[in-house]
Amino acid sequence: MREYRRRIIAFVRIIPVTIAGLLVIAFGWAHAAEELKHGIIRIPVLNYHSIGVEPGNTYVLHPDDFARQMAYLAAQHYTPLTLADFARVLAKELPSPQKPVLLTFDDGYADNAEAALPILRQHGFPATLFLSPGAVGQPGYVSWPQVQELSAAGWDIEPHGMTHPHLPQLTKKQQREEITESRRWIEQKLGKRAAAFAYPYGEYNADTLKILRDAGFQWGFTTQEGWATSAQSPYERSRLVVRSEDSFETWKQRLSVP
Ligand SMILES: [Zn+2]
Predict the structure, then answer these.
(1) How far is the CA of 132 from the centre of ligand 1 (A)?
(2) Which residues fall inside 5 Å of ion ligand 1, going by CB?
(3) Beta strands in the chain (DSSP E)
(4) Distance CA 69, CA 253 (A)
(5) Ligand 1 centre from 49 Cα, in Å?
(6) Taking a C-beta distance cutoff of 8 angstroms, is the pair 185, 162 a contact?
(7) pLDDT tens, 69-90?
(8) In which element (H, E) is residue 37 found?
(9) Residue numbers of the domain that contains 224
(10) Gyration radius of the chain over CA positions
(11) Do 70 and 6 share a structural domain?
(12) pTM score of the predicted model
């Protein structure tokens, strides 16, 4: 009898803990669903440039550091997205994976194909390259066959201006030429549609935004520090520019705090 009572008491004691646990889970689900329906979606967009060895150059990240960052994303179960899925998640057309991230590269350095691609392949991660077609084939930059290799590996190749100009210093006509020509080259060489644009030097003005809209672009990426959110204009998505002098801890911090 005593044994029986002890069991009853033990069972009764477990009930509130169980109920609390179920409530936490239910609340978590409800919260996630609510966030998806009405809340703001936030996704970190990492912005890389060159992956190579050039100490002191903020835009050249050592391949070992890049490999360490990608290994961290894999170990922490991050999901690097394609550009299309990134857009669908932000538009709330697709449920967000638990830890979404968009990996972007600017300018089109040859080491993107030679150093970054093999590392991303190891993890099966897609990426987005914002390419200035005017630089293709120049020393240090990708060739068209390399661009095709990246595209075939699942990278989204998107325009970044023909000659990487300071757009606000140009006339509206010159801006339109830079923007639409860079897209035309990419679409022609790859036979795929391109609908995103990254502003060279992160610089743009009202003319730039109007040109993108009128030309049927869907997304624009800045170098404004911060996460991309569903509350931002589709033409002004923030990014986290990865700097070679930042410590691994700093990089992790920027990635984990919106
Ligand atoms: Zn650039």
Answers:
(1) 8
(2) 106-107, 200
(3) 42-43, 45-48, 50-51, 60-61, 79-80, 100-107, 128-131, 156-159, 196-198, 219-225, 228-229, 237-241
(4) 12
(5) 8
(6) yes
(7) 999 999 999 999 999 999 999 9
(8) helix 2-37
(9) 41-256
(10) 23
(11) no
(12) 0.85
CA distances from 75 to 8, 99, 104 (A): 43, 12, 20
Per-residue model confidence (pLDDT) at position 257: 84
The rounded Å distance from CA 9 to ligand 1 centre is: 67
Asked whether residue 1 falls in the same domain as residue 124, the answer is: no
Find the 202 Cα to ligand 1 centroid distance in Å: 8
pLDDT digits (tens, 9 = 90+) for 137-175: 999 999 999 999 999 999 999 999 999 999 999 999 999
Distance, CA 220 to ligand 1 centroid (Å)? 13
* Res. 247 pLDDT band, cuts 50 70 90: very high
Q: Are 164 and 135 in contact (CB under 8 A)?
A: yes
* Residues 77, 172 within the same domain: yes
Other Cβ atoms closer than 10 A to 26: 10
Q: What is the pLDDT of residues 91-105, one digit of tens each?
A: 999 999 999 999 999
Measured in Å, residue 52 CA sits from the centre of ligand 1 at 16
Considering the domain architecture, whether residues 23 and 117 belong to the same structural domain is answered as no
Q: Residue 70 and residue 50: Cα distance in Å, rounded?
A: 15
Residue with tokens 């549609």: 193
- 166 with 202, same domain: the answer is yes
User: Are 126 and 30 found together in one domain?
Assistant: no
Q: What's the gap in Å between 74 CA and the centre of ligand 1?
A: 27
How far apart are the CA of 106 and the centre of ligand 1, in A? 5
- Do residue 140 and residue 222 come from a single domain? yes
Q: What's the structural domain count of the chain?
A: 2
Per the structure block, which two tokens stand in for 76? 């922490």
Q: Is 210 exposed, middle or buried (0-12, 13-18, 19+ CB in 10 A)?
A: middle
